[in-house]
Design brief:
mainly alpha, two-stranded antiparallel ribbon, 4 strands, 2% strand, globular
Length: 614
């Protein structure tokens, strides 16, 4: 990518505007309610845009578009379209409970329902997972910078690689969230959420235009290209023909990431956890002026979720059509290290037992080498079985799918028009927005659920705010140090898969605990502790016993196990009388009629999209 003066001006102006508006609108936040919950004064339009901006990041632009470029195609849109229905349920089922309780954090609700230990366990789990998510989102943003600016220097000195990109993004995110808290995030999100929709739409438009102008011979598809397709066909016609095998919502039951069975239960569990119980998302709704404003904001966000696959998933599919050779070249850079290790292992196979596994695309493009490596692996495994040695694994990949959006950004948008600067700013703004949300949520939970509970119960409001600012910086440093390590193919070839499976360790247990807590009022306090511990333990055991089962289905089984154990304990030792939730709210709790109408429309529109693409 080569940025012209107009691109640089737009990019710098956008970033300055976002940071300045965030700081200016929240410069007087001195107490914990103002800093952590924006003084409980957010309007519906701020909530809606903030939910989208906090959610949509390079996890989607890089990870989801990468999965779309891979075999999954449009089916990955289920994460977005099912979320629309989930949000409607959250608005009318979860939110009234939380606002009535007057809580600051989701773990705080567990103390009201179960006990302090349950609150602390969830708080600890969420802080750890947020540090991991900060690293993952930072990596995906840095990968886009590295792909778009390959070989360029920042300020003529620093190479634009994963490390430089990680620290650049992390420092930007920490800057305004540390200074202004949730209100800074919400106002900055208003700009960034709008820019995301506009920028994503622009990428889709120019990608289709480029596809229409490219000869068939220069295009690629993972299925045979129809003979009837001609160079004169329009961009949409070429897109439909080249990707017909990907324009559906159902994957085989054996798919390791998204089998069709996940549509029945597996995807609903992470969706309800993410949108209803995840602090960095729910914190926006906890800061609403009233229940009606919160519900309208959530339904507004649900409507915008229906648009996301059209500006993220479909462009990812186009990226493979246009740039598959470049994706292969990026994969070969990483494969070079692995193949060098293979040559060493062949020369001295007795030194360290290691096998080399190529994914299906790599095997298809390297058939003879794949057969040679398969034979080598058999010898290594046989020797290890005789000696009892442990075998390690190295991976070879056919394509670096997560570079899809980076190539669109650098090669599809017209140069010298300002579009490259705008979309790059919107993309980095999305990263910064999501990171700011995670950092703010992690600092809130650490300060209120852990530090105040166990270290300084009498801490002043200003002390808690200053601690929150300090922890933002600490978590940012951890994330930036960890981020570049996530590019190792041994971990995964999809950052989206890394993020989803990482959260799968905790979300089944958390959702089960909340459902039992809300619906089974005689469940004793110990069930909350048991559920939060059993969730990650059962998921880990299932991974060891059934590694071939999709992680989403493993999470479903784990959810069922936790639910069954909690109900069994309730049956054995029920509370003498049902729990009554306290009413601490100081805001209006009248439900919104217009939000109900909008929610019905969103649900019907989602079902129509599934019917069209099923």
């Amino acid at each position: 990518m080569h940025l012209y003066p107009i691109d640089i001006a737009i990019f710098i102006g956008f970033i300055i505007a976002v940071v300045a508006i965030g700081i200016i609108t929240s410069r007087n936040e001195k107490d914990s309610e103002s800093y952590f919950l924006a003084g409980r004064g957010l309007s519906w339009w701020l909530i809606g845009f903030s939910l989208i901006a906090a959610n949509i990041s390079t996890e989607q632009f890089v990870g989801m578009s990468g999965n779309a470029a891979d075999r999954i195609g449009l089916a990955i849109a289920s994460y977005e379209w099912l979320a629309a229905i989930t949000l409607v349920v959250v608005a009318f089922f979860f939110l009234p409970y939380f606002l009535r309780a007057g809580i600051y954090t989701i773990p705080e609700f567990l103390e009201q329902r179960f006990n302090k230990t349950t609150r602390s366990l969830m708080a600890l789990c969420m802080v750890l997972i947020y540090v991991f998510l900060v690293a993952a989102v930072t990596y995906s943003g840095a990968l886009t910078i590295q792909t778009a600016f390959a070989g360029k220097l920042l300020f003529g000195v620093m190479p634009m690689n994963l490390v430089t990109g990680s620290w650049l993004i992390g420092l930007m995110a920490a800057a305004y969230v540390a200074s202004g808290g949730l209100k800074a995030c919400a106002w900055a999100d208003l700009i960034q959420g709008s820019a995301l929709i506009i920028g994503g739409g622009a990428v889709m438009y120019f990608a289709l235009d480029r596809l229409g102008a490219t000869p068939i011979a220069a295009l690629a598809s993972s299925a045979p290209i129809p003979a009837s397709l001609t160079d004169a066909a329009s961009g949409p016609a070429k897109f439909a023909a080249l990707n017909a095998h990907k324009l559906h919502m159902v994957m085989p039951s054996t798919d390791p990431m998204l089998p069709w069975t996940t549509l029945l239960l597996g995807l609903w569990i992470p969706n309800f956890y993410y949108w209803g119980l995840n602090q960095y998302i729910v914190q926006r709704t906890l800061g609403s002026k009233s229940l009606a404003e919160g519900q309208k904001g959530i339904v507004f966000a649900a409507g915008m979720k229906l648009l996301i696959p059209f500006i993220i998933v479909m462009p990812g599919m186009i990226a493979f059509n246009l740039f598959s050779k470049d994706m292969k070249a990026e994969a070969d850079k990483g494969n070079a290290r692995v193949l060098a290790l293979y040559d060493q292992a062949k020369a001295a196979p007795e030194t360290k037992p290691v096998i080399f596994v190529g994914d299906p695309p790599w095997q298809q493009t390297n058939p003879s080498l794949a057969a040679e490596i398969a034979a080598f692996n058999e010898r290594v495994q046989a020797r290890a079985a005789q000696t009892g040695g442990k075998v390690s694994e190295e991976k070879l990949i056919g394509y670096k799918y997560d570079t899809a959006f980076g190539f669109l950004l650098s090669r599809v948008l017209p140069e010298g028009t300002g579009w490259q600067g705008f979309v790059l700013a919107a993309l980095l703004g999305a990263v910064v927005s999501s990171l700011a949300a995670m950092l703010n949520a992690a600092s809130t939970i650490f300060s209120l659920d852990l530090y105040r509970a166990y270290v300084a119960p009498a801490a002043s409001q200003s002390h808690l705010v200053n601690l929150g600012r300090l922890t933002v910086g600490v978590f940012m440093v951890f994330g930036c140090v960890l981020a570049p390590k996530l590019g190792d193919p041994k971990i995964s070839n999809s950052i989206f898969a890394i993020i989803q499976e990482g959260q799968a360790y905790i979300y089944s247990g958390i959702l089960a605990v909340f459902l039992v807590g809300l619906l089974v009022r005689r469940a004793p306090p110990m069930t909350g502790v048991v559920g939060l511990v059993l969730g990650p333990v059962s998921f880990w055991l299932l991974k060891q016993l059934a590694p071939g089962v999709s992680f989403v289905n493993r999470a479903s089984i784990s959810f069922g196990v936790v639910l069954a154990v909690m109900l069994l304990l309730t049956w054995l030792r029920p509370l003498p009388k049902p729990v009554e939730f306290p009413a601490n709210a100081r805001i209006e709790l009248v439900s919104s009629r217009s939000a109900k109408v909008g929610g019905v429309f969103v649900v019907l529109a989602t079902l129509a999209l599934y019917a069209w693409f099923f």
